[in-house]
Amino acid sequence: MRSFSPTTAAIIDQIDFRPITALESTLLLASVAAATTHLGLIATASTSYNEPYNIARRFATLDLISGGRAGWNVVTTADLPSAHNFGLDTVPDHAGRYARADEFAALVKTLWNSWEDSAFIGDKATGRFVDMDRVHAAAHRGRHFAVQGALNLPRSAQGHPVLVQAGASGDGRELAARHAEAVFSASQSFEESRAYRAERHGRGPNAVKVLAGLTMVIADTEAEALRRRDALIDLIPWHYSVNRLAGVLGVPAESLAPDTRLPDDLPLPNNGNGNHTFFHATLAQARTHGYTVW
Description:
The protein has helices at 25-35, 52-65, 80-85, 94-112, 170-179, 190-194, 222-234, 238-249, 269-272, 276-289, and strands at residues 2-4, 41-46, 70-75, 120-123, 128-130, 140-141, 146-147, 162-165, 182-185, 209-212.
């Protein structure tokens, strides 16, 4: 499985110290699909600054050309620079973003399912291409979106792309419980991963698979792997790391003093309107291992 995850639509990182990782993910994975046979292809696309019909068509196309190997990682976007790039003065509030995401995901699934499995005929002898009785209009009009017609391409070998979710907030887990087939998690234990499973909305306890995030350094021995890890860490400028940590925690970089532990009473970034997942994962790591800022 290969996942590409540009969750933002702006320059928000310190790109003078690292590559820009913001190539459009479905185009990138289309090139990977052409060069591979068995690799799963999951791309992130935000519900905050896209439209359901375009996303449904883009991922259905990737699924078709890859022979049924595509997946969509559903996210919302919480950074202010992305909001500014789409004409907004502020970031939509957390609950509002996820309400839009819920309707977005439901509508994309409706569009993917607007073609029955047997709708595509492709019969040379009779000249029939599609059985239009098996293609159904979305006929959706909701709070955020209105889409009348069916998707304009048939189903893939796996029916439709796999739907994945990656938010650890309560709203994110509810979105996963409603729609996802798998969850990307930053959980720190097996017990925490189990908490992502949700037996709600008529779905069983095994409906959502939990995929724990791992960072791997590979070597012939553990000692060599640790040496490589330390060598990689030593290449990172300290002020870059401190700025990254401050951004995750939603605090000024100058408030993070060396050789001090993180405060116990840190509030969620941006009054709860920031990224919950890595905020909680970072605090969990720091408190479990007694880490200091540096």
